[in-house]
Amino acid sequence: MPHEAQPQPADELDAETVRTWSSLALAALGRAREDIDAINVYPVADADTGTNLYLTAESADRALTETCRNAAWTADATADGTGATDPASLSEAVRAWAHGALVGARGNSGTILAQLLRGVADVLGAGPEGRQTNPGGLLAHALTRAAEEAYAAVAHPVEGTMLSVAAAAARAAEAASSAAGSAADVARAAYDGARAALAETPGQLAALGRAGVVDAGGCGLVAVLGALWQALSGQEPPAEPPTGAAVTSPPRPADPCEQHEDGPAYEVIYLLEASEAAVAELRAHLDGLGDSLVVVGGDGLWNVHVHVDDPGAAVEAGVVAGRPYRIRITHFGDERRRGRGERAQRAVVAVVPGEGLAGLCAEAGATPVLVRPGEVPATAELLDAVRRAHAREVVLLPGGAELRAAAATAAEQARAEGVRVAVIPTRSAVQGLAALAVHDPDGSFDEDVVAMTSAAGATRYGELAVAERQSFTSAGICQAGDVLGLIDGDVAVIGAGLPETAEAVLDRMLGSGGELVTLVLGPEVPDAVAERLEAYVQSGHLAVDTVTYRGGRYSAPLLIGVE
Asked: Can you give the pTM of this predicted structure?
């Protein structure tokens, strides 16, 4: 559990207050996480709102703590050890907090929470440092800006959601400020206003009324505002929810997925480096692709969240706008199963270098983690994917030797949460495809892992890449622009063209036998190359079958698997 700061009554908005608020909010969301997950029915009944809010707050708290720690180290180093224990300014603290939420935002609710914190930071981070003449008014202004920016970030705001709760909190805060209330008074008014608004959400949104629950995101926001009041007053907020109904045991809808089975099939989230003008065009484009569009951030860095049927098109739109990264694609089939309270017995998580491969794995029932060339996903990303798989048993396919350490650490942490995890040491996406082909979710876990491991191990893998510079390789000296043919990770062939080099690689790989060749084409490789290679394999190896897939953006020019 996160460390909880012990609040002391204060009416000053400074870095220490922000640290206390963050610590208390994270602890409150941690306690309420499962309860909030249980009442999540809108916009998708995927039972993850509490988890997404917690993970977003955890990322924000981590960034804030690191900033304050670095500032303290600098002060100690420059003041002969006499620096203050928390010399970070209010501006530094709130901006670090908001940035941490932005880069770590999860899901629809977490993305909105990140924008709410950004709104707070825009106000608290812009004022002069030092003694504040009206901290209550400053806080009310910050909460109002937060609500305004959150509404602006959502393509189609809906009342009866987290946005309604934020707006009510801001109105109550402004009223308390007008009455010359202290910062603690304003925080208490915002908390009470949010609680009252949360109780009204079932009457505002039909999906909530049918389910007999309050809005899950709004419930999380109430917890965050309760932490604010506690940080300023030193008093703990009431433990009971403001609805009069026990949130810990809410009435469940007859079919919580009823309203969303015909909705988009995928959730796509990514960070994006782009200009404001490019993001404005991106919003318009994504709005036509799907729903639940939320784009938050600013100053060149954005977090994009959307539900679509074509995840490749959503990512492609990000590429047109700027540089997307940390791309996460989730198939709602598993998420809706979780919304019905079901937990799968077994799932597969696969790290893949291409949008097409990610879609292929999702269609096969796996949870994909999409990476760009040269990008290594952090342990937290792999652990998040294991959690999203929502299964008692998980098979993790890292897809590269450089990912094994992160995969092993994520597996260890997941085991501590009660999930049985096995890491199959796949070194290429084609080995992962071979493992997925024999995956048997209904068999025993050990037998399934053995079969998948055997299939991956029996698959030789090749890759074609273009040399960026002159270099010494195991096949000789290559020049910039040469096509490199790698077999099992080592350069085996150096050629001038992709088709000719691929044929040479196939000759070597099939020299020791094989029954099936898998070709994964990069985004710029024409279909004619696949047709040529298929014909080449058939002409020399009549008993060998060939299957071809499109790897999509971010995939290598050509991946080859021989089983």
From this structure: 0.65
